[in-house]
Design brief:
about 220 residues, 5 helices, disordered N terminus, disordered C terminus
Length: about 220
């Protein structure tokens, strides 16, 4: 029993040393990556390469599909029919009409709201400013006609995605997922960067923002 316990202790110690070495290595990569921002007040690291008004159609699509669901809910509430015991057509029970109409309303609002929410989390441009201490994200407004700016400390940004895949012309193509998500500590929703956009250095993103980099900089 004593020998077994000693073996577990040695294995745990070796594991800790391995993790410590990994932390030091990744921490060194982060510090090296940060050097390129040291003497620069602003660096553009991502550009969607689209006009700020590119998504001006989105609010109309969201409102249009919401109207479709609302009209369906209204029609079902007013005219849904069932057969009674004598085979006569009568207005469907209130609970049935209310349930179906309610589901239609929730679906319409959910889909429309989802479209607009996606729009406001989509990044048009991303910059690193203040010599590497701050990240500036420009996202599309809900109207789709302009952008708004969000500022975060560099150390608060992280991603659970890996940008570099080695696939596609730019090496960032990911099968089944055209988006790269970037998060800020304390924000429940991710920002979305389309992989078709222009990344100044995909490897830089993985070094600075992949989940491990965020942990090592704390």
């Amino acid at each position: 029993m004593i020998l077994l316990r000693s073996a577990f202790v040695r294995m745990a110690a070796m594991s800790c040393r391995g993790k410590h070495s990994s932390v030091n290595m990744n921490g060194g990569l982060v510090r090296k990556a940060m050097l390129q921002f040291r003497d620069k007040s602003e660096v553009l690291v991502y550009d969607r390469k689209l006009k700020d008004t590119h998504y001006k159609w989105a609010p109309w699509v969201a409102c249009g599909q919401m109207l479709v669901f609302i009209n369906f809910a209204d029609f079902y509430w007013r005219y849904s029919m069932d057969q009674d015991e004598d085979g006569e057509l009568v207005l469907a029970p209130t609970w049935k009409r209310a349930s179906i109409s309610g589901i239609a309303l929730v679906a319409g609002l959910g889909i429309g709201g989802g479209i607009l929410h996606f729009l406001t989390r989509s990044v048009a441009r991303m910059k690193v400013v203040d010599r590497g201490t701050t990240v500036v994200l420009e996202t599309y407004r809900m109207t789709g006609r302009s952008t708004r700016t969000h500022r975060y400390p560099m150390a608060s940004m992280f991603s659970r995605d890996k940008l570099c895949t080695g696939l596609g012309e730019k090496g960032v193509t990911k099968t089944g997922s055209p988006q790269y998500s970037l998060r800020a500590k304390g924000d429940p929703y991710a920002y979305i960067l389309n992989r078709e956009g222009e990344f100044i250095d995909p490897q830089l993103f993985d070094t600075l923002f992949q989940r491990a980099a965020y942990v090592y900089t704390q």
